[in-house]
Specification:
Keywords: Antiport, Cell membrane, Ion transport, Membrane, Transmembrane, Transmembrane helix, Transport
GO molecular function: antiporter activity; xenobiotic transmembrane transporter activity
Largest sheet: none
Number of helices: 17
Structural class: mainly alpha
Distance between the termini: 40 Å
Number of domains: 1
Strand content: under 5%
Radius of gyration: 22 Å
Protein name: Multidrug-efflux transporter
InterPro entries: MATE_fam, MATE_MdtK, MdtK-like
Organism: Hymenobacter setariae
Oligomer: single chain
Amino acid sequence: MNPTAARPSLTEGPILKSLLTLALPIVFGNLLQTGYQLVDAYWVGRLGANAVAAVAVCFPINFLLVALGSGFSVAGSVLVAQNFGARNLKMVNHVAAQSLVLETALALVLTVGAYAASPLILRLFGVGNDIFDLANSFQRVLMLGLVFNFGFLMFQALMRGVGEVRIPLYINIGTLALNFGLDPLFIDGWGPVPAFGVAGAAWATLTTQVLSFGIGLAVLLRGKSGIQLSFRGFQPDWALMSRSVRLGLPSSVDLSARALGLSMMTGLAAAFGTTVLATYGIGSRILALGIIPALGISLACSTLVAQNIGARNLPRARQTANYAIGLSFTGLLLVGAAGWLAAEPLVRFFLKGDEAVTRDAVEFVRIAVGSLCFTGVQQCISGALRGAGNTLGAMVLTIIGVWGLQFPVAWYLSRHTALGFHGLWWSFVVANVLSALLAAVWYLRGQWLRENLTPAPAPAPVAEPA
């Protein structure tokens, strides 16, 4: 029996139940993925403000590199989901294999180029000599793991496309626990293991990334989880890859524009000195943790919209998006309230002994966290657009939000008003609110649903009358 055929479609039954069934494991999985960075920050924070700043400046650069590959995982997930909704199971397996080939090739190219250019990239971001060597050693190790990081991201996207979200969650639980134990081992050293310092956190992450991808590939080849791969299926299908590139490239630009925006924000913070840079690094990590529920709901929305479009049920696709937007706004409103109340304990969890950084980071979190509910709206609308194959629309919304709103506002408020570096914090509020309003106008126009990306079923033959 084909395991893909046995897996139920999410195109029937109560919409809210289907959305929560898919979204909750994704949210927990994303929390665990972010846990890698949070665990690193926890242990690195014991090394002082310079170590925290070195890791903080690498975060947006690594995010940019991962974003370039994540767009193609979006394409793989959408193509798998729409074909799964259409019950074209042979194409589901074919798309999965070709998506992995494309993602691996891209990761290899980026690894070679980024590793060689690491010092130049850090200089372009204005990283000071006091943290340059720490940042370069940490960043280069992360770059060595791009192939495995990209591979596991694609594995999660393919599983999500067929509605299987538990297996990636279980893998994340196990590898995060391992990472928590490896961090102090590689940072401080023990026995024959040397002390790598800041770079030790990156070596721990690399080790668990290799393990995660290896398990994920074994799951796909075993074929018991909704997708059945074979080594023969990895032979390149250039026509399908070209189609995936056309669908995935706008998503890569979308995510890269967001990552570049974070990098430029880091540059603005770095201009105010190491203390402000460390403050921004801690505060932005806490905010990134806060929007994880919105990202999970957005990914679930994208999958469900794609499956319903593949099943040619456009009204249900639209209703799913409506549910996701309402759920995300409400959920992030509660997260924002909790984040405001818990701002100081959260900051102190990541940094000990530096009261100036702690005070400023608490202020940053409390200013920005209340606007996360608007980020939830924008994220879910973008997820619906991607599920409909309209990745170009999602890209435009991101570029306007990041480059047309947040960065200019942050630059103006921090450089040309009495707010100083506090203007960086307020730019999050302005950009989140205006981006959500723009996305809502786009969505309410009702033209975001596109023709689905699967071939129409052949009509049944009609017998001629005798």
